[in-house]
């Protein structure tokens, strides 16, 4: 069994006691966001990550450093790693929800999306595989949008677990039906092997959809928590 904890938070206020926990590179990223809400989402992701890592490693939060060097370009905007530890993290933010997934020794990916958007025909064509398009055909606009975002969060979660992000063509992977337990049925990208990919749809919070994925053959045990700092 692979244990995954997903911890959710609303955007934190930009208090000095949080800002002081950012290192120089993180502070640079924080300052570069033009919108205050984007700054707060970024800050909240870092606070979720640093406090959970501090708890797991039994260390003061001030001593926790994350390395977010991008595997593609070297800039500090990649997925955060915990140096000298087998903890694996994934951060996602959308609307009023920021999430952190943590696993041990297993690549993990989390995605959350606000669920109040409409999925029109062009978005469905762009992102869903033929089998998935068939599953949503004939649904009302509202039901199709809800089903679409279940598929979408599953897709982003597995892609984030691989670290390749959206470089894997969305239509090249097929999941179980939106109303069935989440499983990767097939993938034409070699980074994703259905026998070694597990995922779960999450409860998240009202108005949001979310999924978490891990690259493992073992079943997942997922615990969702709402964080109050
Ligand atoms: C990773 C990616 C899927 C994010 O999707 P999104 O829906 O816009 O945003 P989310 O809120 O769900 O996720 C953002 C988080 O993903 C993480 N992340 C960044 N790159 C990642 C990657 N390659 N794989 C997994 N996670 C990644 C970060 O923690 C980021 O949050 P942070 O910046 O606050 O730390 C998307 O940015 C992507 O496809 N990146 C691919 C790599 C890329 O294009 N690099 C270009 C720059 S060289």
CATH architecture: Alpha-Beta Complex
Which residues form runs of ≥5 with pLDDT under 50?
A: none
Listed once per kind, the bound small molecules are: coenzyme A
Average pLDDT: 95
Could you say what the CATH topology is called?
A: Ribosomal Protein L22, Chain A
Number of strands: 9
Shape by Cα distribution: globular
Superfamily at the CATH H level? 4'-phosphopantetheinyl transferase domain
What is the succession of H and E elements? EHHHEEEHHHEEEEE
Q: What's the main sheet like?
A: 4 strands, mixed
> Structural class, please?
alpha+beta
- State the share of residues found in helices, binned by percent: 25-40%
The share of residues in extended strands comes to 15-25%
Widest sheet, order of strands: 2-3-1-9
Cα separation of the termini = 29 Å
Count of helical stretches: 6
Q: What's the Cα radius of gyration?
A: 17 Å
Q: How many domains make up the 3D coordinates? A: 1
CATH top level class name? Alpha Beta
What does this structure look like?
Helices cover 31% and strands 25% of the residues. The protein is α+β, with helices and mostly antiparallel strands and 229 residues long. The protein has a single domain (2-226), classed as Alpha-Beta Complex (Ribosomal Protein L22, Chain A), CATH 3.90.470.20. The strands form 3 sheets. It has a 4-stranded mixed β-sheet, with helices on one face. A 3-stranded antiparallel β-sheet has the order 4-8-7. Strand 7 and strand 8 form a beta hairpin. Helix 2 packs antiparallel against helix 3. The mean pLDDT is 95. It binds coenzyme A (COA). Coenzyme A binds next to helix 3, strand 2 and helix 6.
């Amino acid at each position: 069994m692979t244990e995954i904890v997903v911890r959710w938070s609303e955007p934190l206020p930009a208090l000095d006691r949080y800002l002081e926990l950012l290192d120089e590179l993180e502070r640079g990223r924080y300052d570069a966001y033009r919108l205050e809400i984007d700054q707060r989402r970024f800050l909240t992701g870092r606070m979720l990550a640093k406090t959970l890592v501090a708890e797991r490693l039994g260390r003061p939060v001030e001593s926790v450093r994350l390395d977010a060097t991008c595997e593609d370009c070297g800039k500090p905007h990649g997925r955060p790693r915990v140096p000298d530890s087998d903890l694996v993290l994934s951060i996602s933010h959308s609307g009023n929800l920021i999430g952190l997934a943590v696993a041990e020794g297993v690549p993990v990916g989390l995605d959350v999306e606000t669920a109040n958007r409409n999925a029109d025909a062009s978005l469905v064509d762009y992102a869903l595989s033929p089998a998935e398009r068939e599953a949503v055909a004939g649904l009302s606009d509202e039901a199709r949008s809800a089903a679409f975002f279940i598929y979408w969060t599953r897709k982003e979660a597995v892609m984030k677990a691989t670290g390749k992000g959206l470089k894997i063509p969305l239509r090249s992977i097929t999941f179980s039906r939106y109303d069935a337990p989440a499983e990767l049925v097939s993938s034409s990208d070699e980074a994703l092997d259905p026998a070694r990919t597990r995922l779960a749809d999450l409860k998240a919070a009202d108005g949001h959809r979310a999924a978490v994925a891990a690259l493992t053959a073992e079943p997942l045990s997922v615990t969702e928590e709402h964080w109050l700092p």
